Structure to design on (127 residues):
């Protein structure tokens, strides 16, 4: 069983930056594809960024492409998302997720591709 714990959320003004971290325990971290999702008030959870098990391929929601960067540190069992040029519409609870897929270079984007989820961390961007 894998446990995921996010940190780094908070409040920031538009144009600012935050880096979220997600520490994993209880599994073989380098065997998982990783992702970040978010859920804004009154909206469905949506995919934000994904990273292949190999770390060589990443995918992003169109609206965050060029502003957000997902990365992983297998030595620290941690996945990060660096969020720059934040906008009020980025306000949401952000969740990290890990999936035990078999493919090294596949970037998962669907919730059902992920087996483990963190508890979420709130990001609030004010205008």
């Amino acid at each position: 069983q894998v446990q995921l714990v996010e940190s780094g959320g908070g409040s920031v003004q538009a144009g600012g930056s935050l880096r979220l971290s997600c520490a994993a325990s209880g599994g073989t971290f380098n065997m998982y594809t990783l992702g970040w999702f978010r859920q804004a008030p009154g909206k469905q959870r949506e995919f934000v960024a994904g990273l292949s098990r190999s770390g060589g391929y990443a995918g992003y929601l169109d609206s965050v492409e060029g502003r957000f960067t997902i990365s992983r540190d297998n030595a620290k069992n941690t996945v990060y998302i660096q969020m720059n040029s934040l906008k009020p519409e980025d306000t949401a609870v952000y969740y990290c997720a890990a999936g035990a897929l078999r493919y090294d270079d596949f970037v998962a984007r669907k919730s059902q591709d992920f087996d483990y989820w963190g508890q979420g961390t709130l990001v609030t961007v004010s205008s």
